[in-house]
């Protein structure tokens, strides 16, 4: 954990208004000693929380690298020779890489499309308060809350009749529609944080509404767009119910694949655990990269309501 | 903004939302008045499906379970998310790492996270939690068959998967709170709780409202976690609304698509009712 | 307390897999499976048999079959042997629930995503009446001699037929078999039980010995296996769901109540959460030494005999399942697994049939022993596997199947009631009365 001194000194990660380089703040009536103890206590609590939050993943990782005959022993085995057989088997005997590919394609395509059509709409909603905008916002709110089954089951029938059932395209389209409301909400708040005067200035300079949006406003809200994109990507990457209904042999995603493995026996169950870990790993990395943007983006106006 | 411009800007999004959400929704409403199964045309049966749904005691118990879980989980999410956010906000160099670690459970799909979670509690997979319980000499807990133990388990799994989001959004909100205010709350022992309650939390009211709104939406849809964590949800009264719809209408090959659709429509109504305060706020804010 | 066996093991040390051996296996696997499609699990070997199917253009055959050590050999043979020339046979690992779900989905479309389906006697009548499966009689006529289909067991062919037509080529039979811990039984001087009364006595003795808190494990999952269990108990008492002559359900008979009572009488000897156990969970109970006895489908038994799965592999003995009453049929279900062709497959049925026939050929069937009980007469003898003798006894004494289209819907719809009765939420009388009502409702559709 960080030393208390480092923690007290405001750092650049603590936001733009952190008062960089300012002298140490007064430490309150109880004096520095109590403050240090409280700091340590807080860090201990955080460490415990982190461990608890990671425990399901860690426990799964243990089970996967154990030899099969002690993988799920009760009481559990704590000494064993680790093996990566489950990962090797997964890679060799299933089309896991294909599912991973499908998942990525669906996530990327749906994110890009949702942004391309969501950005202009969100901008319009932030600049034009009339009743149409209110109606659209309320519609988006309700759509965000819809139970998946209410739209996905008809989508299954529609995709069948259009001949696009079991394609990554159908799944990506469905996810664009399903995740669009959230992105519009988020983006609208980002746009609202950009002063209207900038629009006017740019338009006076001879920009059209569209080129102004493209050249001036969108670059201004970089972190906001990244935040929205990250959320869209995550939602699509994790989606299970929609994917299980709209895909089958040729465009199944990783969550769908893993879901069909959970009732397996040993050693395939270990393989399912391995697949879960392999799905978690990229998002693990993703989480590290993303957290900075998520904070900056969410902070820049999105959720101030 | 000129009307034409507005139209051009909004049109693609509106087309997608209406084409891909409203048309399916209309189909669902249509099915809800029919006796129908996949792949064959249905016959109109009026309100029969709605009558069936509303007279089924399982539907009532699913509504009760879902509402109770939603209220409990959302409260924990908001309070826990707030506490975590304050703790993380106090960190220095470690912050990105801690934040990255805390986000992991949010990015794991619900069904898979639920399964990982279940292995911790299942003796057939050497569940470590039961070992610890035995070690400290507490009585055995029947996580999967005892109604309340199972509710606790399910709620814990949902909190586990959703608290990172709450924490993240609140943390973002805290960036807008003046540093001095946070410092004061951290240093001033007994008074700190009051500072949080009466000064800081109200100043990020909007953020907390947003977290509450999103959490309510997501917990009301509870389904994924129940599959691995509550294998006998029906018998112990831990069936959520979506699971109930899935079990009744679609498990058996979509034989009861009409009934399932009627339940979906009822669920949408319930969701709209629970969201009414937020809808009103949106309308008010949108006009200004 | 349970103590894991630490003494000398039956297998010679050279056979024990150290980390080095495991690593080299992994390397060999890398070499062998550098490309190609299909499911090849590390533990199952795929027989390579001649497959002379020819296709005019590149064709992919998608196979839907759940994984278990008994089904895998046939699936793997199909994939390994028939993926040649322009033909690709593809299979991805999937659990049983997944298979059920996908079967429904693929049969609902105009053109299905799967071309070969794993089916079993229990669902054949329903799928056949719905017109979802292709009748195979003409194809058997054409190819019977080439693939020596005459050697397929008569009874198993019948189990795959409905209304005089064949809807699946049988690959194997599965029936309940009891696995028990020979070491514990010997130590306590116990014999494998042959009736439920003895089962209770033996369980009580094991429980009293202090070695096993809950000595018995049965797959009684309240949302699945429990239906099979109740049907098995009913069958052992000589009663069917429905009397097909009069079209009246039998849940008002004394046996219907007795079957429930008998199942409930085992509760004290089973884990309190047994109603959440599917077959893989029961296997875990045995692997971990938590239970000393288990009764489940024979297809799950071979796993128990593998050192790679459990330290108790050498300790397991096998016996036919007990009868519920004093005599009569055993507490069992006879299930025949086979391969069907969905009517909505876009692939030429002749090609599909040849692929199927290849996987049940003499050579392939022999390779499937001991993991499976193949449909070819004479493929299994008493010494084929540690549990073969028990399986042969069990196949002759299982209750007769009920090959009717209403069997599956009745089982599905009465399941929640059976579960409630098992959990003491309703009385046995209430349960049987409610089941009678449900079954009468189902029968109204036929």
List the helices and strands and how they pair.
The complex is a heterotrimer of chains A (305), B (288) and C (446).
Chain A: H1 4-8, H2 31-65, H3 85-93, H4 96-127, H5 131-145, H6 148-162, H7 168-193, H8 196-204, H9 209-220, H10 222-238, H11 241-246, H12 254-259, H13 268-302
Helix pairs in contact in A: 2-13, 3-13, 4-7, 4-10, 5-7, 7-10, 7-13, 8-9, 10-13
Chain B: H1 3-31, E1 34-35, E2 43-44, H2 48-55, H3 57-89, H4 95-107, H5 110-121, H6 128-135, H7 147-174, H8 179-187, H9 189-203, H10 205-220, H11 226-229, H12 241-250, H13 257-287
Antiparallel strand pairs in B: 1-2
Helix pairs in contact in B: 1-13, 2-13, 3-7, 3-10, 4-7, 5-7, 7-10, 8-9, 10-13, 12-13
Chain C: H1 19-32, E1 59-64, H2 72-82, E2 87-91, H3 96-108, E3 116-120, H4 124-129, H5 137-143, H6 154-159, E4 161-162, E5 165-166, E6 169-174, E7 176-181, H7 182-188, H8 196-208, E8 216-217, H9 225-236, E9 242-243, E10 248-249, H10 254-265, H11 279-287, E11 293-297, E12 316-319, E13 335-340, H12 349-359, H13 362-368, H14 388-397, H15 407-422, H16 428-443
Helix pairs in contact in C: 2-12, 9-10, 9-15, 10-16, 15-16
Question: What does this molecule look like?
Answer:
The complex is a heterotrimer of chains A (305), B (288) and C (446). In chain A, 73% of the residues lie in helices and 0% in strands. Chain A has 305 residues and is mainly alpha-helical. Chain A folds into two domains: 61 residues, no CATH class; 210 residues, MetI-like (MetI-like fold), CATH 1.10.3720.10. Chain B has 288 residues and is mainly alpha-helical. Chain B is built from 13 helices and two strands. In chain B, α8 packs antiparallel against α9 and α12 runs antiparallel to α13. The model of chain B has no long low-confidence stretch (mean pLDDT 87). Chain C has 446 residues and is α/β, with parallel strands linked by helices. Chain C is 38% helix and 12% strand. Chain C contains 16 helices and 13 strands. Classes of the chains: A mainly alpha (305), B mainly alpha (288), C alpha/beta (446). Chains in contact: A-B, A-C, B-C. Chains A and B meet through α1, α2, α4, α5 and α6 of A and α1, α3, α4, α5 and α7 of B.
């Amino acid at each position: 954990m960080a030393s208390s001194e480092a923690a007290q000194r405001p750092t650049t990660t603590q936001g733009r208004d952190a008062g960089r380089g300012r002298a140490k703040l007064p430490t309150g009536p109880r004096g520095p000693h109590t403050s240090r103890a409280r700091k340590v206590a807080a860090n201990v609590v955080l460490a415990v929380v982190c461990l608890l939050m990671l425990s399901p993943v860690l426990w799964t990782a243990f089970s996967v690298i154990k030899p099969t005959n002690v993988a799920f022993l009760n009481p559990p085995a704590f000494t064993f020779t680790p093996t990566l057989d489950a990962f090797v088997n997964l890679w060799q005997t299933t089309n896991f890489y294909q599912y991973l590919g499908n998942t990525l394609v669906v996530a990327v395509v749906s994110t890009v499309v949702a942004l391309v059509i969501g950005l202009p709409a969100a901008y319009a909603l932030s600049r034009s308060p009339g009743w149409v905008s209110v109606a659209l916002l309320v519609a988006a709110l309700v759509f965000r809350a819809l139970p998946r089954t209410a739209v996905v089951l008809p989508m299954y029938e529609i995709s069948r009749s259009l001949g696009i059932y079991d394609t990554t395209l159908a799944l990506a389209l469905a996810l664009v529609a399903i995740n669009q409301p959230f992105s519009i909400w988020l983006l609208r708040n980002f746009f609202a944080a950009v002063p209207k005067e900038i629009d006017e200035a740019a338009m006076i300079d001879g920009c059209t509404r569209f080129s102004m949006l493209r050249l001036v406003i969108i670059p201004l809200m970089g972190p906001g767009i990244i935040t929205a994109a990250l959320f869209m990507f995550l939602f699509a990457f994790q989606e299970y119910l929609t994917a299980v209904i709209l895909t089958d042999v040729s465009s199944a995603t990783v969550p769908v694949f893993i879901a069909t493995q959970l009732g397996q026996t040993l050693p395939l169950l270990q393989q399912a655990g391995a697949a879960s870990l392999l799905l978690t790993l990229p998002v693990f990395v993703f989480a590290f990269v993303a957290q900075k943007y998520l904070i900056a983006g969410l902070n820049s106006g999105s959720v101030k309501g | 903004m000129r009307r034409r411009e507005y139209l051009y800007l909004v049109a693609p999004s509106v087309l997608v939302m209406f084409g891909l959400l409203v048309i399916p929704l209309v189909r669902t409403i249509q099915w809800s008045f029919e006796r129908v199964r996949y792949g064959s045309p249905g016959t109109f049966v009026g309100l029969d499906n709605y009558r069936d749904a509303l007279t089924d005691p399982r539907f009532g118990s699913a509504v009760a379970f879902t509402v109770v879980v939603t209220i409990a989980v959302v409260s924990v999410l908001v309070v826990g998310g707030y506490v975590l956010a304050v703790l993380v906000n106090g960190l220095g160099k470690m912050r990105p790492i801690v934040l990255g670690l805390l986000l992991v459970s949010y990015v794991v799909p619900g069904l898979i996270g639920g399964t990982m979670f279940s292995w911790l509690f299942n003796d057939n997979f050497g569940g470590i939690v039961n070992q610890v319980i035995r070690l400290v000499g507490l009585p055995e807990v029947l996580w999967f068959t005892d109604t309340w133990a199972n509710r606790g388990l399910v709620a814990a799994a949902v909190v586990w998967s959703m608290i990172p989001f709450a924490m993240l959004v609140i943390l973002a909100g805290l960036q807008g709170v003046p540093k001095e205010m946070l410092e004061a709350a951290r240093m001033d022992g007994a008074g700190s709780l009051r500072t949080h309650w009466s000064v800081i939390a109200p100043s990020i009211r909007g953020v907390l409202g947003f977290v509450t709104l999103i959490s309510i939406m997501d917990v009301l849809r509870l389904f994924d976690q129940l599959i691995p964590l509550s294998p006998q949800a029906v018998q112990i009264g831990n069936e959520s609304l979506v699971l109930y719809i899935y079990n009744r209408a679609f498990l058996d090959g979509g034989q009861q698509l009409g009934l399932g659709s009627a339940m979906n429509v009822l669920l949408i109504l319930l969701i709209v009712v629970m969201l009414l305060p937020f809808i009103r706020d949106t309308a008010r804010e949108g006009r200004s | 307390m349970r103590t894991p066996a630490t003494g000398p093991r039956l297998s010679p040390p050279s056979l024990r897999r150290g980390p080095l051996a495991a690593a080299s296996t992994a390397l060999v696997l890398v070499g062998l499976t550098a490309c190609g499609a299909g499911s090849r699990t590390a533990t199952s070997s795929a027989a390579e048999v001649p497959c002379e199917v020819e296709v005019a253009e590149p064709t992919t055959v998608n196979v839907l079959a759940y994984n278990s050590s008994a089904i895998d050999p046939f699936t793997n043979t199909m994939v390994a042997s028939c993926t040649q020339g322009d033909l690709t046979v593809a299979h991805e690992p999937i659990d049983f629930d997944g298979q059920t779900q996908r079967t429904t989905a693929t049969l609902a479309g105009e053109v299905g995503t799967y071309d070969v389906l794993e089916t079993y006697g229990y669902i054949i009548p329903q799928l056949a009446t719905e017109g979802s499966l292709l009748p195979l009689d003409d194809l058997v006529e054409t190819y019977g001699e080439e693939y020596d289909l005459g050697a397929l067991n008569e009874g198993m062919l019948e189990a795959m037929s409905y209304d005089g037509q064949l809807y699946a080529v049988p690959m194997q039979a599965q029936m309940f078999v009891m696995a028990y811990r020979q070491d514990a039984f010997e130590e306590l001087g116990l014999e494998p039980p042959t009736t439920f009364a003895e089962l209770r006595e033996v369980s009580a003795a094991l429980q009293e010995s202090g070695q096993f808190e809950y000595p018995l494990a049965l797959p009684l999952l309240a949302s699945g296996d429990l239906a099979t269990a109740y049907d098995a108990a009913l069958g052992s008492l000589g009663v069917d769901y429905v009397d097909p002559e009069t079209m009246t359900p039998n849940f008002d008979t004394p046996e219907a109540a007795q079957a429930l009572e008998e199942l409930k009488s085992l509760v004290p000897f089973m884990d309190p959460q047994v109603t959440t156990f599917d077959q893989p969970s029961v296997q875990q109970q045995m692997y971990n030494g938590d239970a000393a006895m288990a009764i489940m489908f024979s297809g799950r038994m071979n796993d128990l005999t593998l050192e790679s799965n459990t330290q108790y592999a050498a300790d397991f003995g096998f016996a036919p399942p007990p009868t519920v009453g004093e005599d009569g049929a055993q507490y069992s279900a006879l299930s025949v697994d086979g391969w069907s062709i969905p009517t909505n497959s876009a692939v030429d049925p002749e090609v599909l049939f040849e692929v199927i026939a290849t996987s049940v050929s003499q050579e392939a069937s022999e390779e499937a022993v001991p993991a499976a009980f193949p449909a070819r007469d004479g493929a299994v003898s008493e010494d084929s596997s540690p549990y073969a003798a028990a399986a042969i006894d069990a196949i002759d004494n299982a209750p007769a199947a009920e090959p009717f289209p209403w069997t599956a819907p009745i089982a599905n719809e009465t399941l929640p009631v059976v579960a409630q009765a098992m959990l003491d939420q309703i009385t046995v009388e209430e349960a049987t009365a409610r089941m009678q009502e449900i079954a009468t409702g189902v029968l109204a559709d036929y």
